Each structure stands twice: as structure tokens, then as C-alpha cells.
Amino acid sequence: MKKIALVFTTLMIVLMSGCGEKTLLDTPTKKVEEFFANYQTLDEDVLTQLDEIIDKDNNLADDQKDEYRDLMKNHYQNLKYDVKDEVIDGDQATVTVEIEVTDYTKIMSDSDAYLEENKDSFNDEEGKYDETLFTKYRLDKLKEAKDTVKYTLDLTLHKVDDEWKLDDISEEDEKKIHGMYEY
Q1: What is the pLDDT at residue 58?
Q2: How far apart are CA 72 and CA 103, in angstroms?
Q3: Cβ-contact 58, 135 below 8 angstroms
Q4: pTM of the predicted protein model
Q5: Least CB-packed of 2, 42, 138, 181 within 10 Å?
Q6: What's the CA gap between 170 and 173, in Å, rounded?
Q7: pLDDT, mean of residues 52-77
Q8: DSSP symbols for the chain
Q9: Tally of structural domains, the chain
């Protein structure tokens, strides 16, 4: 009888710890950490989304698309994040996270200002403005970027079938993640 009780107790402990482990692995914070880790590790889904965005950009020549893709891959790998808070209210949650990314906003703004003042320097041999020349200039400037910027994001999640799901990221938060948010 003691053997049966011991086996039953052991089985209950194993089952309960297994359930607890799933619960510990499926938290809003863990989902947010997984989200940012996917950027840092260049997850296939992240790269597919990046490719889709770049392929739609008609202002980039093919070699410039490759340069921009490499630039953003490096940006993603260098993204830093720190979860600051998690608030759960039933099946809804908000995770506050601070991210640090390369600050491309200033470079984009400075490049646009340079274009306004020096448009002729981006003319082709026939004297017509050539967007690819300016894009090359801008890409070269983006590659030189060293400054970083920190943003605080409040990411929301909801529970579906006992699993936390990250809600769609706002356009503003996407720009922050990509270092392109105008502050």
C-alpha cells in the first residue's frame, strides 16, 4: 500500500510540475522576450517580413536592396531590450519593455536636408536627378550610424485557449523597433 501511495504521490508531483512548467513558459513576458529574440536571431519569419518590405520598395536598385537587407539584419542583431513591467488583468496583459536601437531617424532627416540643399549632386550624366544616387548616399550614411536611442513600448497581449498571444504591434512601435521613429 505504501508503494502505491509513493507511486501516486510521485506521479502527482510530476504531473503538477509539468503543468507548472508550461505555465512558467507561457507568460506575457516570455512571449515578449520571444518576440524580440526572434529579431536578434534573425528568425525566418522576421527575415521573410523584411524581404517583403524591401521587395516592395521601388526606390531601391537590386544591389541597394541587398545592402539595406544587410543593414537591417545587423540592426536586428544589435537590438537590446529590457522588460520593465508586466500587468495581467484576466485574459489581457501589458508588458512594458525598454528597447535600445540604432538611431536611424537623425540620419534620415539629415540626408533629406542635405538633398534639399544639394540636389544637383545627385544628378546623372544628363543632369537629371537620379534617385538611386541619393539612395546610395543615404545607405552609406546609415551604415555609418553609431548613435543609439531608447524607447519604451507597452505591448499588449491576450489569452487564447490558455496561451498568451502578442497583439499586433502599432505602426509607431514598429518604427521604434526599426530605429525610424521621428521623436
Answers
A1: 85
A2: 12
A3: no
A4: 0.81
A5: 2
A6: 5
A7: 93
A8: -HHHHHHHHHHHHHHHHHHHHHHHHSSHHHHHHHHHHHHHTT-HHHHHHHHHHHHH-TTS-HHHHHHHHHHHHHHHHH-EEEEEEEEEETTEEEEEEEEEEE--HHHHHHHHHHHHH-GGGGB-TTS-B-HHHHHHHHHHHHHT---EEEEEEEEEEEEETTEEEEPPPPHHHHHHHTT----
A9: 1
We report the CATH number of the domain holding residue 80 as: 3.10.450
- Quick: pLDDT tens for 93-134: 999 999 999 999 999 999 999 999 999 999 999 999 999 999
Name 36's Cβ contacts closer than 8 Å, sequence gap at least 6. Answer: 79, 81, 97, 99
Determine contact, residues 94/155, Cβ cutoff 8 Å. Answer: yes
What's the pLDDT band for 24 if we cut at 50, 70, 90? Answer: low
DSSP string, 120-136: GGGB-TTS-B-HHHHHH
Task: Check whether 2 has a pLDDT greater than 70.
Answer: no
Contact 108, 180 (CB under 8 A): yes
Burial class (CB in 10 A: 0-12, 13-18, 19+), 145: middle
Q: How confident is the model at residue 85 (pLDDT cuts 50, 70, 90)?
A: very high
Query: Does 182 reside within a domain?
Result: no
- Write out the three cell numbers for 109: 532627416
